[in-house]
């Protein structure tokens, strides 16, 4: 189809009256409203509940509260000190049970021990394992330093 055929077709079209266009716009049907309500309810149900008796204390030692970790809390990332035997799936389950939030991802970091010296005596400051837990948008964890 050439360039000249397009202009002829545009001229031939009749403008649609505004009354007909307004008549086409209808209120959403009752069925559509019920379906949207069901999806909202299903989203609300997806939040896991806190558990009273859990084994989270075997995985998580304590939350790490530092300047950097409080900055990451604004990005829905929280830092916890965990036991050396803990893995990502255990940390995910423990945070979900303990705080009742949806966990998106878990990153684990082994922080090495540092060499320390007092006078002529040298020693080591022990290392630890920490987990950076990302949670779903719109959720938060209330962590109090102490």
Would you give an account of this structure?
- The chain is α+β, with helices and mostly antiparallel strands and 146 residues long.
- It has a domain at 56-135: 2-Layer Sandwich (Alpha-Beta Plaits), CATH 3.30.70.
- It has five helices and six strands, in the order H-H-H-E-H-E-H-E-E-E-E.
- The protein has helices at 3-12, 18-24, 30-45, 67-72, 88-99, and strands at residues 60-63, 77-82, 103-111, 114-118, 121-125, 128-135.
- The strands form two sheets. A four-stranded antiparallel sheet has the order 1-2-6-3. It has a two-stranded antiparallel sheet with strand order 4-5.
- Strand 4 (114-118) and strand 5 (121-125) form a beta hairpin.
- It is elongated and about 95 Å long.
Physical arrangement of strands within the biggest beta sheet: 1-2-6-3
Average pLDDT metric: 82
Name the shape in a single word: elongated
Reported by name, the CATH topology of the domain at 56-135 is Alpha-Beta Plaits
According to CATH, the homologous superfamily of the domain at 56-135 is RRM (RNA recognition motif) domain
What count of helical segments does DSSP give?
A: 5
**End-to-end separation:** 75 Å
CATH architecture of the domain at 56-135: 2-Layer Sandwich
Please report which band the strand proportion falls in: under 5%, 5-15%, 15-25%, 25-35%, 35-45% or over 45%: 25-35%
